[in-house]
Design brief:
Layout: E1 3-5, E2 19-21, H1 42-107, H2 113-123, H3 134-146, H4 155-168, H5 171-174, H6 181-197, H7 205-260, H8 273-280, H9 286-299, E3 301-302, E4 305-306, H10 308-314, H11 317-323, H12 325-362, H13 368-393, H14 395-403
Keywords: Coiled coil, Signal
Protein name: Outer membrane efflux protein
Coiled coil: 308-338
């Protein structure tokens, strides 16, 4: 039978411990050591609160620093944007001026006066630049071939020579401004002789063929010279048309930019685009654009500090004007292409004129020494024309200015 044993612990603990003994009254097992419970005092609680407060304070400082850095970064970004816009538009104002000036200069170009005189003299039927005069040679061929050296034997022959001279000296041919007078003279004389042959049996078909064969040697030379001139003139006209189109595009582009800079283009009225732009660029210059930005900065300055964010927010078109500058740069590249095309035209013209001179030599119209002298003279005049145009237009001036525009950086 079990026997319950009860005792009271001798130390200051509350509670009752119940033990079970066997019938043989074995001694009870001593109780396990009991650790006293953790007691949170006022000091530890305060310490924990202080640690938490410190963490909050540190977090607030980090957040404040991050916010400060973001604000500073945003301000720096606005300054960078504004400086980029300002520099680009100031440089663009100079680019507009230079591009317009150089377009007008290139449009006015044909060749130099010396080169024009040279070509005109080669084509003049009265000229003896190659050692012969077409007018004299045609009369000589009529006398030698058609009249068989008997131009003064009778009145009919004399009248035939006088009529030929009359055709050559016709005021109609002298009024031509292109390279067609020699060709027109040759055609008119042949038509005249064919007409005379109808009533003059001495002028037979064989004589006409022989005359035409000799005359065609001159026709070949003048046709080649005429072809060179026509193709050069056609190329120049096309080049001028492209320059006019480029100037129109520049005008349209400038219209928006000038509006943004508070210097709008005036009404053109009946003026040409060249007249309008030349007058406009008297006032729209680089220094005026510098003044525009200086006044804007003063307007947005408070306490000695410029409010860049407000400036950009209130003037959004500044960003758009900056972003459109890539188109202006592309227009300068287009002008450069047209500028180079002009010299390609001049090179082609030089080649074709030299070809016509070689034809004159090959057909025994002119001596080799004379032809080579003329070719050397033409080369010198052509090089002189190139140097004169390059110095006048000065592409490097435009290129250096365009390089200052950082148009690849778009701003949003």
């Amino acid at each position: 039978m079990l026997k319950l044993i009860r005792w009271t612990m001798p130390f200051a603990l509350t509670g009752i411990v119940t033990l079970t003994a066997t019938a043989q009254d074995q001694p009870p097992t001593p109780p396990a050591e009991i650790k006293p419970p953790q007691v949170r005092t006022a000091d530890t609680t305060i310490k924990k609160i202080m640690e938490d407060l410190q963490k909050v304070s540190d977090s607030d400082k980090q957040n404040a620093k991050a916010i400060e850095q973001l604000s500073l970064g945003r301000e720096l970004d606005n300054i960078t944007k504004y400086d980029l816009i300002k520099n680009n538009l100031i440089q663009a104002s100079e680019t507009y001026y230079l591009l317009n000036k150089k377009i007008i200069d290139l449009k006015s170009r044909t060749t130099t006066s010396n080169l024009d005189v040279f070509i005109t003299s080669l084509n003049n039927p009265e000229s003896k630049e190659l050692g012969f005069s077409l007018s004299d040679r045609v009369v000589e061929l009529v006398e030698k071939i058609i009249l068989k050296g008997k131009s003064d034997k009778n009145e009919r022959n004399t009248k035939l020579v006088e009529s030929t001279k009359s055709i050559i000296n016709s005021p109609i041919f002298k009024s031509f401004t292109s390279l067609t007078p020699p060709l027109a003279i040759a055609s008119s004389v042949m038509n005249f002789l064919h007409s005379v042959s109808q009533s003059n049996k001495a002028i037979n078909h064989k004589l006409l063929q022989e005359f035409e064969k000799e005359l065609n040697k001159y026709v070949i030379y003048y046709t080649a010279l005429n072809d060179a001139n026509q193709k050069f003139e056609f190329g120049l006209n096309f080049n001028k048309d492209q320059l006019s189109l480029l100037q129109d595009n520049m005008y349209d582009h400038l219209a928006f930019t000038s509006q943004v800079l508070k210097m709008p283009l005036p009404n053109r009225g009946n003026k040409t685009i060249a007249e309008s732009l030349n007058e406009y660029f008297i006032d729209f210059r680089k220094d005026k654009v510098v003044d525009f930005f200086a006044k804007m900065e003063a307007q947005y300055t408070k306490g000695g500090k410029i409010n860049y964010e407000g400036l950009l927010r209130d003037n959004p078109n500044l960003k758009e004007a900056n972003n459109q500058l890539e188109d202006l740069v592309l227009q300068t590249k287009r002008f450069e292409n047209l500028y180079n095309e002009y010299f390609s035209l001049l090179d082609s013209y030089y080649t074709k004129v030299n070809h016509s001179l070689r034809l004159a030599q090959d057909n025994a119209l002119a001596d080799r020494a004379i032809v080579e002298a003329k070719q050397n003279e033409f080369r010198g005049l052509k090089n002189e024309a190139v140097q004169e145009i390059q110095a006048s237009i000065n592409m490097r001036e435009l290129t250096l200015n365009v390089d200052k525009i950082k148009y690849r950086y778009r701003i949003f």
